[in-house]
Automatic annotation (TrEMBL):
Residues 5-117 form the Glycosyltransferase 2-like domain. It holds the Pfam family Glycos_transf_2. InterPro entries: Glyco_trans_2-like (IPR001173), Nucleotide-diphossugar_trans (IPR029044). It comes from the Bacteria. This is Glycosyltransferase.
Amino acid sequence: MGILSVCVPARDAGRGLERTMRSILEQDTDIEVILLDNASTDETGTIAKSFADVRLRVVRNEVPLPEGENRNRAVSLTTRRLVTVVCPGDILLPGAFDQQVTVMADNGIAVCCAKFQLLDEQGQVLATEVGLPNLLGQRDIRTLMRTIVRRGPAEFGPTAATVFRRADFDRVGGYRGDPAFPMHVDLIARMSAFGSFYGQPETLAAWHDPGAAPLAQLWRFQHRLRAEYPELVGRAPVLTGDLRLAVAAADRLRARIRSARAARR
């Protein structure tokens, strides 16, 4: 019996679900796949049931859950020691699961995360070998936390690039739904209290550029990490992170001004 469970939490995900599921089911690794349809009103359920694969279990919520709760329910349905969460629209590259399961054979590693590709709206590759600055190889929680605060959560890419241990997920209480954008990176940080973080140099997943996250949300996220882990996240990384957000805010303001001027012409 294999050791990896794949969770696909889906809500009105008909547009990208089929390609995501094919990228999962074409992996050679022995997996179980839990697709949790979060009360979708589009063709998500039909697409989910179109795959005649004994590894796939489709479950439906009759009432939609908040995103964090839905992901937690999906993980609660798994039966194996390792888990990855693959959101509709994310793509697994060939051999991804085999490489990550091999890394997680080291019981001292709590979480592994791989580099990723950025895709445009048509699914064409915009950039590859993206993410994980200064985090390749085995890293302790102090290095991980400081990098998260300094560089921001977007450097960790899609949830599909990450594999973690179900036992550690349960120990930290799963996903915290607020703030929504850094939810997955918040989970990575908290689980890394139970072992090392391992950054894989291989590019194993792809996702569509999620766009700019609300800066206030990111500010709350990094200051919460500072408050919860003061022994790991000092003042300097937080100041660096705050400066990064201030620069981003200034860039957005300039872009809005240029757009407003162009509209008046």
